[in-house]
Amino acid sequence: MNASPLIDYETIFLHAPVGMCVSQNRVIKACNRALIEMFGHQSAALIGQSFSVLYPTPDEFERTGARIVPIMNAKGHYSDERIMKRASQELFWCHVTGGALVEHDPHAAGIWTFEDLSAKRPVTAELTPREREIAALLVEGKTSKLIARQIGLSPRTVEMHRAKLMKKFSAATSGELVHRLLGVPLQAPNTAGS
User: How many angstroms separate the CA atoms of 23 and 135, rounded?
Assistant: First the structure.
């Protein structure tokens, strides 16, 4: 019988085509080359650092951490698209997926993947931290009421932020705003006669 060759998981992790890291208590314990290149940090500069270095502001780091806990506790995994920050201070859209390694303690240990979405969805407007958070939730298809409940604001306050986003992105409707946030070109209306 032929023995199966051993799989070198460390090499797979280091060379995976998507950014990956292992965390403990929201501190990066290991990361791969794709993550280092995506965020523009040196490997040594990321190992042992809080995930907060990857967020635009400390407040966004804290709010995101609080938001994922109930979802991770219920599902064991979490996924969203959010605006992150490179070492150069450039902001970019990123798809983040994580899995808890300790049941019912999502921050104790986890494995996370990061996919840079900037090529198809550039950050084109100067947004406040709260606007970035609400934009990310609008992209998920959530209503103002759901967003308000999830982040602890009144629906009226969420509507106010959404109105500011619509103005910044020159969007006439909520649907148009989501398209602009996603970087999806709007189709011209069909003017052909019947």
Answer: 26
